[in-house]
Target: Si:ch211-208g1.1
Amino acid sequence: MDSQKTQARHYRTLQEMYKTKKPNNCAVIQLLDLEFQSRRAFIDSDVIKEQEKPTKIFEAYPCFKEIDHVMDELRRILQPANQSFVTELRQRWKTFCSKVQFYGVMKKVHQEATNDFRRY
Model:
């Protein structure tokens, strides 16, 4: 376990990286992994009012304005040991969307066929 001092250093490094135009994505991911425990403590704490949390989180962690970092944080929360979680989730979402689209088209075809049958 990292000490609070080390976690604070990781956080400061992350903040410095986001002052540049293009932060190194791999380095950001590594720092987010290292700093996870203190970040969760910050987010879960009662120090911030509930209605202010989103604003304060984005101020403290501008990287979460990028969807890839949000998805990776989801992995850290749900399946920290599964490095391919986001890839698997995206594939499952793609499969789900194609099935929903297929269902929508089939339902429309069925409705049109039913309407045509009723006209005769």
